[in-house]
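Morning!

This is the sequence you dropped in the shared folder:
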Amino acid sequence: MQSFSDLGIEIPAGTTGEARTTCPQCSGQRRKSKDKCLAVNVAEGAFFCHHCGWSGGLKKEDEKPLNAEPKTYRKPEYKPAPSLPEKVIEYFKTRKIPEAILTANKIGYGKSWADKGGIQFPYFKGGAVVNVKHRSHDKQFRQEKEAEKCLYRFDEIAKLAGDALIITEGEIDALSVQAAGFEMVTSIPAGAPSPGAKSYTTKFDFLKSAEEVFKSYKRIILAMDADAPGRTAEVELARRIGPEKCYRVKYPEGCKDANDVLVKHGEARLMAIIEGATPYPVSGLFRAEDFVSDIQRRYDEGIQRGLATGFTSLDGLYFVKEGRLCVVTGIPGHGKSTFVDNLCILLAMLYGFKVAVFSPENWQTDNHLAHLLPKVAGKPFRQTRYSNRMSPAEMQKALDFLNEHFFFIVPEEDILSVDVILEKARVAIFRHGIKGLIIDPWNEVEHNYSGQTEAQYLSLQLTKIRRFARQYGIHVWIIAHPRNLIKDKLTCSYSVPTMYEISGGAHWRNKADIGLCVHRPNLNDDVSEIIIQKMRFCEEGRIGKASLKYIRDTEQFEDV
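The structure's back. Tokens below.
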């Protein structure tokens, strides 16, 4: 069995129960190098650093540690037959793909699974085969287990670079584009997601290794299939890569993909379609035909109200829709931040929702984590009079969940401006596919008026944030404290603040898509009101009020 000393953790011999010591991961780099920031539970064999967040457990025999090592991929053996069977060569000829392209891409044939013979598409990265996709004669697809997912023809597109990179939905489409004369072409490895899917889990993980590749191209041409899954993939790729860099193609009537065009119309037509790719809609002047793909998606999927919040009492009042700006206000201490954190955790649990958080009030980040963990685990982080705290194993499980769904923006720059926050969020969109951004609170953002009035500056910044939300398909929450609080002379209580009471006034209400207030009408109990004060789009909610009860031990809200 592993020991604490194997991990560099030093505790006195004979220690039982819980102990505190220095952290081998961060203490040596800290000014307070002797601060005992690492909590160790000897009985459970677990540890957690309250400064850097390092955590885990001792590895027992035949048991993985709580903080399993970063995932390692299995390298598949690729030993195709010495030459392709004639029937395979003939099959590709019917798809108008010449044998020379098959040879150049090292297309193989062999047994794949369940003793099925199939075409093999090798994925090369760094000169080695990292994955193989198998296609059986009855058009079933399968990739190697536990192998890395990356873009098809990764090595070729990484070394070629240039003006435009073409991304297709499948390997045969990529080979078709190559047959039309384009070498800088690739394919996504796992096909398109199902339309209406709430979470893509690991569907787009291949993008993480492609970030530098995309930077070397001026344009990214999205040549997805002309069907509902293809349109879904196109929207998500454009959202992550950045719509300003993306172009898209329009296939002729009766053609679903690049290979259809090649077979039915020939190389010259496919080349013309690729060369005629149009900019992905971002800004400027467009015709209705530029949005055919988008309107077809809306027609196929129907009206998308957004995600339900997970609170029954809020159903119908507020749906979390991509591309929206939500302004949250309320009296300090009434639970604005706690509500938004709870909401995002529920969205993560229900839909795999991922969110980036800019929250200077909660720095250091370990302090914020200590308040998020009870909301995930359903148990207190610290021992209370009424409840037992979460165990190290429960804490680690909750940390794993937060690690997957929450990403913290803690810029090293001295100026924490809106531009800096949005740039970090853009990176999180590409790498992790976040669907939400929290800015908490607005007054902690660095504001440089540069000769503008506060109203002029606020109008420009809120417009910028709302445009960013629309462009990248995320839901943005801005938590903004009211400037003026109105006190009732008879009851000595404060009235419910509106968006007009936030510094900057009317622009908060004018620019926001959703405005809500978190308010505790009676400070002697733990019931909070979530008051929807503005809803721009009626299909996504309505003005109204819901009551939620705050559970102090677990820092959770629940329906009354």
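Headline: The chain has three domains: 4-57, 149-300, 307-559.

More detail when I'm at my desk.
O.
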